Amino acid sequence: MKNMVIVLTGVTVVAGALLGYVNELTKEPIAQANAKALSDAIAIVVPGFDNNPAEAPETIELEGVTYKIYKATKGGEFIGAAVESSANGFGGALNVLVGFDKEGNIIDYSLLSHAETPGLGSKAADWFKKGGKGDITGMNPGQKALVVNKDGGQIDAITASTITTRAFLKAVNNAYAAYSGQNVDGSSGATQQVSETAADDPKAAKAQCEGTQDCCGQACDSAACKAACGGKCDPANCDKADCKKAECPKQDCKNKK
């Protein structure tokens, strides 16, 4: 019995050492492969740059979530950015990289990873691309939030997968909120985070709006508010279920002026 314990202990130690060695051996190649995949994805969603966006990503935090933003420049001039975003789909996290031009229009996207079934995942990778049934290219979530048609929106859902579609569109809307939530200076690269105080305090929000309509306690020009409320600080939009649930929990501003 004693010899068996010694043998089993020895086997465990050796197995652990081998696993550790294999992990160290593969860690660097995996990291390099992931870096290349990201660089390739950035080149797809924001083509035409001559810098290296992946080299120095910027981060912005909105409502406790951190987003990575990869700025693209050409000849030193800002031309757009790729934003990493995610949302929970049917099977788990769905991670996307969304490319925006200077005006906030969607150039393209790349599905980085997902936990959906293989069929749904492969459909999401192409469904919303140019020429696809749910084509979102050229759209600006700041002018009108992307919403699936079954919820009264303008985007066709993936066949038999409204949940995956909702998750994808939420990730894209959130990516836009992160992108527009900072003022990007093409020459200096300076960024400015959206005011959290205004988002938490209705009075501060109204002050930031300089007397105009405040959106459910958030600043009228809050990117998150715009993304949820269809791009407009309209009291009618604030009464939408998605708006109140996702971005405007403070109060219903239907009757505010």
TrEMBL record:
This is Ion-translocating oxidoreductase complex subunit G. The complex is composed of six subunits: RnfA, RnfB, RnfC, RnfD, RnfE and RnfG. Its main location: membrane. GO terms for molecular function: electron transfer activity; FMN binding. It is a single-pass membrane protein. The modification FMN phosphoryl threonine is found at residue 162. GO terms for cellular component: plasma membrane. Part of a membrane-bound complex that couples electron transfer with translocation of ions across the membrane. The keyword Translocase applies. It comes from Phocaeicola vulgatus (strain ATCC 8482 / DSM 1447 / JCM 5826 / CCUG 4940 / NBRC 14291 / NCTC 11154). PANTHER family: ION-TRANSLOCATING OXIDOREDUCTASE COMPLEX SUBUNIT G. Coiled coil: none annotated. Its EC number is 7.-.-.-. Its cofactor is FMN.
